[in-house]
Design goal:
It contains 4 helices and 6 strands. Among the domains are: about 70 residues, no CATH class; about 45 residues, no CATH class. The chain is elongated, with a radius of gyration of 32 Å. By secondary structure, the chain is α+β, with helices and mostly antiparallel strands.
Length: about 180
């Protein structure tokens, strides 16, 4: 599967997730309506036959639409469920709609979520939270590139997160070296 096919599969998965969230919300929006006004009867100056009275009642009903009032229900947000039915598959269910994601789609989803999370507030906590679960990668594949301003770009391949880039100023490179060689 080439990159364009993978992107297409991911876009399809994201579209399915969006539809799973948006469609149920649209169905749950209650219609707000006003109660129908009772047709007003004109004063009768002469006696009308029963058929004329029935005809005028039908005409009055046809002139004003019948509207029923429905009680407003509180909108409930759909929940997200994540399952792992197989070694190389994750399923995500939102509002009763399930989408299965394979390894390459999960990688793309992680990348998109990571890029979005980087611009959100609040930032992740400065320290490692107690009870935090993680998978570490021993001796990751790395690439280093010198930037024009003297910074160093370090890209490391994590088995779960994929390629993770970090940029270090020259001072931070020295601190990192000292931390790694501290004995």
């Amino acid at each position: 599967m080439n990159l364009h096919e993978q992107l297409g599969a991911l876009e399809l998965g994201v579209d399915q997730l969006i539809q799973a969230v948006v469609a149920p919300q649209a169905e749950n929006i209650p219609e707000t309506t006003a109660p129908a006004a009772a047709p007003q009867e004109a004063p009768v100056e002469h006696a009308a036959s029963e058929s004329e009275a029935a005809d005028s009642a039908v005409k009055a009903e046809a002139a004003e639409p019948v509207v029923t009032e429905q009680p407003a229900e509180p909108a409930t947000l759909p929940t997200l469920e994540i399952n792992r039915p197989a070694q190389n598959e994750i399923t995500m269910t939102i509002g009763g709609q399930t989408v299965a994601l394979r390894a390459e789609q999960i990688g793309q989803l992680i990348e998109e979520l990571s890029n979005a999370r980087a611009s959100m507030t609040p930032e992740p906590p400065p320290g490692i939270p107690p009870g935090w679960r993680f998978v570490s990668t021993k001796n990751p594949v790395m690439a280093v590139q010198k930037q024009s301003n003297g910074d160093r770009l370090l890209v490391m391949r994590h088995t779960g997160h994929g390629w993770v880039p970090f940029t270090f100023s020259p001072d931070m490179v020295i601190q990192l070296y000292m931390m790694l060689t501290k004995g």
